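Hey, I was hoping to borrow your eyes for a little while. I'm sending you its amino acid sequence along with the backbone structure tokens. Take your time with it, there's no hurry, and the full record follows here.
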Amino acid sequence: MKRFILTYLIVLLMTAAYAQKMPQDYFNEAVQWEEAGKPDAAIANYHYIIKHHPRNKIYVNALYNLGNAFAAKKEYRQAIAAYEKVVNSGYDDKTLVGGDIMASPLGNLKHYASMGIYEAYDSLKQYDSALVYLNQANNVNSYEHFCGNAQASKDIYMSLRYADLFENLKDSTSSEKALLQTIFHESEGNTEVIQRLISLYKYRGYKQLALEFDKAVDLLKEEADSRYPAMKNYSIIFRKTEIKIPDLFYMSADEPDRAAIQAKLKECYFRGIQESL
């Protein structure tokens, strides 16, 4: 009888300990499984959270990580299914998650999930579907960040992804337009963008390109900012592509002067590549 009572108590204690295991514990374990190279164990934990704790604050994070785990296993259809649930959730990408501001203090899970779907379709070589979700990540679920430099870095990354995708779609014109969008993001390291354009322009005379560029700069467009009327936005139209001049390009000037911006544009790194073609 005593042995039975002792065994019963042990079972009760074990059950209580198991019951006290929180969703965050399962999530942390799943991350550890992934880091240990055991994605199936991680997937089991994420599934447990999704099934039993749909109202928990980490539910959407579990869905997103589930998508990542399936993508890592190259099970792209299942990854897409998980990511789509994130995109269709009520999650707000502006949710504060803390951490270093340079690492994005905002959640951005819908943006990342849209990018995950794009990457999955890209891996499946279904480029038309990939384009739909890249547009979604860029326009509908756009990247949220307080820092202008971080936004500029993301712009460069998106510019390159669009260029890759259009190349796969055999659309070199659209690829060029995508790359041109970030030719003035010098402060955030757009060297790869410039090199890709050099490759596209290698059969074109640099003198003609230089003339086209200088003419575009001479016709610099200046408009009042719709959100902040006291401020102005600048852009040029080069090779039938409207290119916005980012604030970071001329932010050193207290009151940007049209002539000063034009002079700086004609001295920019992109203008210098004409000499190397």
